[in-house]
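Q: Structure tokens for this one, please.
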Amino acid sequence: MSISPLVWIVTIAVTIAFFVYEFFAHVRKPHEPSVGESARWSAFYIGLAVLFGVGVGVVSGWTYGGEYFAGYLTEKALSIDNLFVFLIVMTGFAVPKISQQKVLMIGIAIALILRGAFIAVGATLIENFSWVFYLFGALLLVLAYRQAFSGHESDPSQGRFMRLVRRILPVSDEYAEDRLTVRKGGRRFVTPMMLTIIAIGFVDLVFAVDSIPAIYGLTEEAYLVFTANAFALMGLRQLYFLIGGLLARLVYLAQGLAVILAFIGVKLVLHAMHVNELPFVNGGEPMLWAPEIPIWFSLLFIGATIAVATAASLLKTRGERGRSDAVAESGDVDAGTADVDGGPEDAPAGPEDLGAVSARSTS
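A: Here is the predicted structure, written as tokens:
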């Protein structure tokens, strides 16, 4: 796939233009987006990503189109996982809802910049060192294990990195609307808003460690890696407000992502064996017997894993919600019975007691 410098320049310029438009049209004035607004813009960005993938398939062939869609699905799923941590960070810093859009927008912009740097480094490594596929594959297998058996219980706002930031920077305890700094007594302080953005930027850096090797396991085309990441991050702000209440119900998303990362890790190791140049592995000769997993299978596997993890999560939480509602209703009945029948049997109910029971029964 040959991408000219002009195409790269136009793609980056259009991406920047979208983020600038997002900021001035939606984020500059603090407000909490409605469900309708979030749904419309989420659908717009997902539709745009699909149209771009179709364009790649038509212009450059469906092998590259399939690589783009597999990468986009993986990055989108990983980005939704990011939202869990964003939610924890926002809660930890008690960010007002009307200001959360600005934090998300800046955090997403930081994520795109960091991933762009990682993409460039990854492309250079892959072009010059074929053994890096072994490294990427091993890294993804380790990250898959950690993803499967660790949740998001820890609060990044109280982690060691943020404690270090608080020691270095003078911090104000109160928000000043959506400002990042405030002057008090002739001295400049950073607000909790600034701390939140720093925390999200640090989280983005950590997530890029598994995001970039994962997509390079699906395509070696840096252009497809960049555009899949850009489209996955576009609309993430709206998706945060659209599925904010749904995030807690996706209880198996981490396990689904672990399966995807492990699959891509195995795919990378097999590819590394196929192009092996390490002198201490098979005498430096490629292991041509190692199978290459086709992109169509990768696309189906990733899509099916996300679908199964989502469906299983919703079914499990739906059942738990039904049981909790039944327990709550049972508790209400028991409480009503206790109100009427409680107390010593020989204690007559006074007028006040009868009045209270009557009031509860009619309310």
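A few notes: The first strand starts at residue 181 and ends at 184. DSSP finds 13 helices and two strands in the chain.
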